[in-house]
Every structure is written in C-alpha cells, then in structure tokens.
Amino acid sequence: MARTPYPPYPLFRPWRKWLAGCIRPCRVLLLTCGFIGVWAMVLTARAAPATAPLPAPPLDGNCLAAIARAEQAERLPQNLLLAVALTESGRRTQNGFLPWPWTLNVDGRGLYLDSRQEAERWAERLFAEGARNIDFGCMQVSSLYHPQAFLSIRQALDPALNTAYAARFLRSLYQQTGSWEQAVARYHSADTERGGAYRQRVLAALRGDLGPAQTYAEEVERLQGPLLAASRLISSDPAAAADSFGRYLADHPADPVALAGRALALQRSGQGQAAYGDLENLYLSSLTRAGPSAPQTRQAWQQLVRLLGSLPVAERIKRLEYLTGLYGDDSRPHEWLVRDSLASGDDPRALRHKQALIRLHPKEGRLYLDAAVIARRIGDHTQAQTLARQALALPAAALNDSDRQQAQALLHALAPSPASPAVKSDASPANTPRTASPSGG
C-alpha cells in the first residue's frame, strides 16, 4: 500500500546480567557458528519483558486505540494490523516505537509531523506542488491507489477512519488470497519480490516485537533444540545443515538465527549465490529490529557485501536499488550505488543517491559539494548552484576551508555572464537587404 522509509525498531533493552546468563547454555551454538551467535544474543536479550510505559498518545489522535478497534471490528488476527502499522508509520519515541498518526510519505520521503494541523498543511502544500501519491497516517493509505478511501485530507489523517479502511482492505485481500501472509504482502505490493520482502518485515515485527515474550527456559530450549542440532552440522555436512535450517524456517520464516545459519551452511556447501536471499532477509530483518548501526545489522551487511561484490555491476545496482526501495535510511547501499553509478557513467543515478545521503546526513557539507559537481556535469546548473549554496550555508565546522573554496569557485563558474553591450550596426534601411515577408510583399 505504501513504501516504507522508516521500518520498526524493537522495544529493546540492554538486559546485561540476564543476557550473560542466557549466553552460557548457548555456548556450544556460539562457538560452532559465531555469525549465528550474534543473533542468538540479540534474541535472548529481546525475550526480556519491556517495563518502560508507552508515552501518552496525542490528544487528538491515537493509532493504538484505533488499531485495536479496527482489528476487532474486522476480526483480524491479534496484533497483525499493529505489526503492519509499525512497519508503515512506526516512529521511535522516548518510551518505545509506536505507529504515528501524523505521518506522510511522498515519493519515498517520509515526514513525521507533530500535529494533525501541521500534517494537513504539509499535505495541502505537497498536492499544490503537484504530488499525486501521498501515503497518509497510521496505516499509510495511498491517495493514488485508494482515491475513494477518504473525502478529505482531514479524514485521511483521522486515526479511526485511517485504520478502519486499512483493516477492511486487509480483510478483502485475505478473502482474495486465502492467506493472511499473502494478504500482508499484497497490502504493500502485488509484485511477488517486493511483497514477499515486506511480508517478512511485518512477520518479524509480529513475532519479534508483539508476540508473547519467551521465558528464559523457552528461549534456551529453542536455541539448544533444532537450531543447535542444525548448527552442529555446518562444519561436517553443510548441505544437511542447510536442509535442517530450512525445515525450521518453514515454520518460523523470520527467525534470524535460522536465516543466518542456512546462509552460512549454503556458503560452506559452495552455494554462495543461493544464500543471497537469506542474507538479504537477515539484513532487512535486522534493520527493522535494531536499526542500521546495530552490531547484528553491520554483520549482516558485511555478509551481504561479500556476495554483492561478486556480481556484475548491472546486477549489483539492481539489487542495491531494491534494498534502498524497501529501506532508504541506511547509508551503505546508497554509498555503493553512488560508486557503481559513477563508475558506469550513470551520473543521474549517482546524483539521486547522493541526494539520499544528504537527506540522511544533512550536516555533512562534502555531500552537498559532491552532488553539486555531479549536477553540473549532467548540465543541471540550477541544481548545482542550489547544492553549492546549501553547502556554504552550513555551519563552519561542516565544511573545511578547501571545500568551502571549491563551493565558492563552483558558484562563480556557474554565475551568468554579464550581458555584452549592444554593438552599433553600420547597416541602414537603405543598404540593409530586404527579406521576404510571409505574404511576399
């Protein structure tokens, strides 16, 4: 239904002492497969119950209450609509990660506003500027694909109306497909690949953040049961280990330990490219659970990089574009796309991803300057001037003296030349050749 620039992060707390106790019974698993071990630690930490209270909802809007009513009215599986909402409009707050009612998304750019009034003003402005597809509210309902859903911008942002429409739509997709998992995928996209990746993210939110917390004993049993048995096979029989992890994933499709294990087993059995799908899902799952800077996300990205680096440039660009389309707030895929695009002569693509990096790091002056140089090279002098001026407008610490001089030189080179004085002609009406008029007179 909507692109999702800001997927959910977990309600994670650093339960250090508890985690230390959980690691001991899982030591064999950790020693057998260090890559899987990172995920085991993450999961055992996640099993601890969160004790921080949720923040009070805005006075004029409450996604959580509206979602609960809509789920009950449409008889949806418990917390399924909430998992979709967290994937669509989730916002990190001081007291947890919550769906946010005053969220807009236009052309992949997510906006979290502080009030209904501010969100309405932004939506009116965006429509006035020519935007056609704006995703609204708790459930990010698209104005382009659901034009009859609401009568006004105010209605589109109303949590009760927004969630009620999304719940009805999700129920209708279930009636079409006969599967809640397929309904979730179709909620985002009818495209099998995009919808499938989105489904994994929602299921990860449903299982990881919303499901009942596992006890210490349950988590240890899980890690020392089929997952430990599979991990013991990785060194001696990686093909059998991959099959074992695959059977576990059939029932637990978003389990990061199993995804990491099967990917490693496939790589050790000489099926590196077959592991790509698991590593991609592992990376996306880590992003949605813990964010771009988390250790497990960095490790998942490093594993993914090894396979991406072996691909032809055109195929790698295609896969990186897919990742940034699903999750646009990790710098690493954008940076790689800039490098590959410049190397292959695709300056417009490089500029687009430089601008994405500017959005993620608005105080890094060098990004503006690099983008300005690319814009000038493709002939977009207006954009180049704008970027150079933005670089110079940053605080002094954001741009070193050399870069500041380069930005000034770029602006000077792009400044229009002063008009040349008119040259007086010696020609007079008497000696000026007569040209024929259209009428021949």
UniProtKB/TrEMBL annotation:
Residue ranges constituting the Transglycosylase SLT domain according to the UniProt record: 137-190
InterPro entries in the cross-refs: Lysozyme-like_dom_sf, TPR-like_helical_dom_sf, Transglycosylase_SLT_dom_1
Domain of life: Bacteria
Ranges in coiled-coil conformation: none
Location of region: Disordered: 413-441
One matching Pfam family: SLT
TM segment ranges: none
Residue stretches of biased makeup (Low complexity): 413-430
Composition-biased stretches (Polar residues): 431-441
Family statement drawn from the similarity comment of this UniProt entry: Belongs to the virb1 family.
UniProt name for this protein: Soluble lytic murein transglycosylase
